[in-house]
Design a protein that fits this description.
The chain contains no helices and eleven strands. By secondary structure, it is mainly beta.
Length: 125
């Protein structure tokens, strides 16, 4: 069983920076995918970015591509998404998702069998 625990988020001012971290435990294989999805109030959950820790490959939605970057801790068990120049439309519930395969081709909610409980991000203007 893979356990994903989100941290970071909270309230951020528009134009500022945001760091979302996902602590993962229980992955059985070396090649895995960790992703962030965002769900704005009243809207569907949407993919934001993905990271394959073993290769370092990263994938970003075009809405964040120029403003986002991934990192991982030395233990390679916590994966963080840094988002700069935060916009009001970045607000919502952010969910960490995981899959025991590389990220290539994974974009949909159904591609990820493991989910965190979510963390809220609000953006003040």
């Amino acid at each position: 069983q893979v356990l994903l625990v989100e941290s970071g988020g909270g309230s951020v001012q528009a134009g500022g920076s945001l760091r979302l971290s996902c602590a993962a435990a229980g992955f059985r294989y070396r090649s895995n995918c960790v992703a962030w999805f965002r769900q704005a109030p009243g809207k569907k959950r949407e993919w934001v970015a993905s990271f394959t820790p073993s290769s370092g490959n990263t994938y970003y939605d075009e809405a964040v591509q120029e403003r986002a970057s991934w990192s991982q801790d030395k233990a390679k068990t916590t994966y963080s998404l840094q988002l700069s120049k935060v916009k009001p439309e970045d607000a919502g519930m952010f969910y960490c998702a995981g899959a025991e395969t590389t990220c290539a081709g994974l974009w949909f909610i159904s591609d990820f069998p493991y989910w965190g409980r979510g963390i809220e991000v609000t953006v003040s203007s």
